[in-house]
């Protein structure tokens, strides 16, 4: 499949890069979190609060299975925790080229501080939580990725150029 899938931690730029890449490549963009919210008719935070993380992670897997049947030549942005499941990593590879947008904890903290819609950052020391989660998740992101793009200190244009350079013929 000729999709480009963007993965990475919350706040690394998946949504914005996805939108800008969709304009550049003239492809539609799908955000798995938005798809789940649309189907569930509630926000991710509401799903977490009512059903818990395990339920939400199962919904992510369902979403990928549906996309495998329908998505072609699209940009797909996925939730930060989606690649943690082995089944999801396999599905991502089946869907297309996987780009890991990698960011340092300090970059992520600067982007998400004060955002109360992110369930995993509520309470305690958000920067410490980000650093811990990044260390835990990085091996899963790398296992899922075909390409790793470090986004710290780069403009969106530089990030898009690097994605196109790295994927090359896979974008045709």
How much of the polypeptide forms β-strand, as a percent range? 5-15%
The CA-CA distance between the termini, in Å, is 11 Å
Q: Which regions contain 5 or more consecutive residues with pLDDT less than 50? A: none
Q: Could you give the count of β-strands?
A: 5
Strand order of the largest sheet: 2-3-1-4-5
Spell out the helices and strands N to C.
EHEHHHEHEHHEH
Oligomer: single chain
Question: What is the 3D form?
Answer: globular
Overall average residue pLDDT:
92
Helix tally equals 8
Helix content: 55-70%
What Rg is obtained from the alpha carbons, in whole angstroms?
15 Å
Main pleated-sheet profile = 5 strands, parallel
Can you describe what's shown?
The chain is of the alpha/beta class. It is 56% helix and 13% strand. The protein has helices at 14-25, 32-40, 44-51, 53-70, 86-95, 105-112, 126-144, 156-167; strands at residues 3-7, 29-31, 75-77, 96-102, 147-150. Strands 2-3-1-4-5 form a five-stranded parallel beta sheet, with helices on both faces. α2 (32-40) packs across α4. The protein is globular and about 45 Å long. The relative contact order is 0.21. The mean pLDDT is 92.
Gist of the model:
The chain is an alpha/beta fold. 56% of the residues lie in helices and 13% in strands. The protein contains eight helices and five strands; from the N terminus they run E-H-E-H-H-H-E-H-E-H-H-E-H.
Explain the layout of strands and helices:
Blueprint: E1 3-7, H1 14-25, E2 29-31, H2 32-40, H3 44-51, H4 53-70, E3 75-77, H5 86-95, E4 96-102, H6 105-112, H7 126-144, E5 147-150, H8 156-167
Helix pairs in contact: 2-4, 3-4, 4-5, 6-7
């Amino acid at each position: 499949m000729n999709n480009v899938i963007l993965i990475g931690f919350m706040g690394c730029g998946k949504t914005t890069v996805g939108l800008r890449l969709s304009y550049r490549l003239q492809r539609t963009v799908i955000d798995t979190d938005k798809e789940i919210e649309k189907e569930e008719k509630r926000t991710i935070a509401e799903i977490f609060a009512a059903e818990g993380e395990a339920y939400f992670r199962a919904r992510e897997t369902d979403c990928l299975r549906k996309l495998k049947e329908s998505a072609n030549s699209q940009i797909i942005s996925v939730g930060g925790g989606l690649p943690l499941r082995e089944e999801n990593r396999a599905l991502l590879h089946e869907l297309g080229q996987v780009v890991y947008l990698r960011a340092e904890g300090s970059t992520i903290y600067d982007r998400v501080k004060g955002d109360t819609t992110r369930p995993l950052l509520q309470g305690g020391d958000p920067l410490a939580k980000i650093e811990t989660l990044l260390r835990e998740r990085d091996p899963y992101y790398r296992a899922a990725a075909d390409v790793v793009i470090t986004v710290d200190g780069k403009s969106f244009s530089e990030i898009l150029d690097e994605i196109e350079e790295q994927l090359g013929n896979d974008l045709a």
